[in-house]
């Protein structure tokens, strides 16, 4: 094991997962395979590839290309993932994945939970 | 959504995954469900709980308690996860999970890959 | 350079800084030396030492012990850092640093900035 | 405080600092102001700006533009920071900062320290 790997390890930003997401993804209907796929998308974006192919994603997962393509389609259908079209200054169009809908769903979920907790504690105080 | 959640989000350290791990876990025989379980263990340790129960882990996953217990057992059997006994200064014994075997396996894999790449390029140069 | 360091690098969680903090610490009156000191406190807490000594902190900084002690005192006085007393189940008291006041100040600042931006754009619309 | 900020906080990757760097930057002759400047450069790169101006950097620091420009110059002179020229497929040239020399220096330092520790313990065993 040489310097090259150490260097690589130091240089490359780790993928980070907000703890709120770790704690609540299952409650908003995401399973572990989908969660890891979303993390791979976040990772590719960090590396400068905002629209990785099913092929590229599958190469880092224990899922073949067609299974990966299906997972992507399902995440889009469930409203957790979005495909965006971007236009640069030369008018060239490119696509990218956005995890914004996921974060929205997560925040709504957390808000509701908090609201229900308050309601609940209000009712208990009255009783 | 109020300040309380913002505060929480700022305060709590995200879970971090070294990119080397993201890129190679599948190659060393870990699937996505197992990977997420290992990340939950890392997360619990960050929160000061080095030996979370299958119950606690399952509460954050899309897996029930007995499935989670099985996943833990398999990871230990495959040599990716270790249970350690620790003794504090008062002689009290506690247990904790260690991901050290996982990191060892990962580094060995990466080393071999690098070695093989060199061998390969050496052979091509000769041919 | 051997496996041991690679292992260490993989295992040890990096210190993370929320981007909101990176972008606004200077606006709430924190300079770079203070910011790094706060990050060292966060780092020590991650390593299981919630109340590092000026000596321990200074050992990782380009500041001697007495300068470090002064920086700590100033941060407490400015309301960015708090010392908390904790009592465990055996009644033993221990102290820890809390960065909560820092996060509060940051959120208040960001809220105000947002409010002023709205006010400003409102006034421009009217004019 | 509204959803918008929560969303932002969740979405934006935090800046991460390898613990090895936190523990040894002072030993390789970097002070806190320089360290924060390097972190800002890392942050800008994450945001897609690999060559931020002294103006842009200074806007997030407690240092004015000319002080920031001096800090950058010193870091380059001390061999901690490098300016690279990159050419895209259309032949356009752009510049970017690279922290590679910093990581090299850090790894060399850590290696030496380890070597000296071994030497030392060897000598003690003999004595």
Gist of the model:
4 copies of one chain form a homotetramer. With about 130 residues, chain A is mainly alpha-helical. The first copy, chain A, contains 6 helices and 3 strands.
Question: How do the helices and strands line up, and which of them pair or pack?
Answer:
The structure is a homotetramer of 127-residue chains.
Chain A: H1 3-11, E1 15-17, H2 19-24, H3 32-46, H4 54-58, H5 65-77, E2 82-87, E3 93-98, H6 100-126
Antiparallel strand pairs in A: 2-3
Domain DnaD N-terminal (chains A, B, C, D): 17-114
Family (chains A, B, C, D): Belongs to the DnaB/DnaD family.
Protein name (chains A, B, C, D): DNA replication protein DnaD
Could you explain the architecture of this structure?
The structure is a homotetramer of 127-residue chains. By secondary structure, the first copy, chain A, is mainly α. Helices cover 59% and strands 12% of the residues of chain A. The first copy, chain A, is built from six helices and three strands; from the N terminus they run αβααααββα. In chain A, a hairpin with a 5-residue loop joins strand 2 and strand 3. The radius of gyration of chain A is 19 Å and the shape is globular. Strand 1 of chain A pairs antiparallel with strand 1 of chain B, so a sheet runs across the interface. Chains A, B, C, D: It comes from Alteribacter lacisalsi. Chains A, B, C, D: This is DNA replication protein DnaD. Chains A, B, C, D: Belongs to the DnaB/DnaD family.
Spell out the key features of this protein:
homotetramer, 127 residues, mainly alpha, Arc Repressor Mutant, subunit A, 6 helices, 3 strands, DNA replication protein DnaD (chains A, B, C, D)
């Amino acid at each position: 094991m040489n310097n090259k790997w150490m260097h690589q390890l130091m240089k490359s930003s780790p993928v980070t997962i907000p703890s709120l997401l770790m704690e609540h993804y299952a409650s908003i209907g995401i399973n572990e395979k989908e969660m890891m796929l979303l993390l791979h998308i976040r990772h590719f974006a960090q590396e400068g590839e905002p629209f990785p192919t099913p092929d590229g994603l599958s190469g880092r997962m224990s899922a073949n290309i067609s299974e990966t393509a299906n997972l992507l389609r399902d995440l889009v259908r469930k409203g957790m993932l979005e495909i965006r079209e971007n236009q640069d200054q030369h008018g060239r169009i490119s696509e990218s994945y956005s995890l914004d809908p996921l974060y929205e769903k997560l925040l709504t979920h957390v808000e509701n939970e908090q609201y229900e907790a308050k309601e609940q504690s209000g009712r208990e105080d009255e009783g």
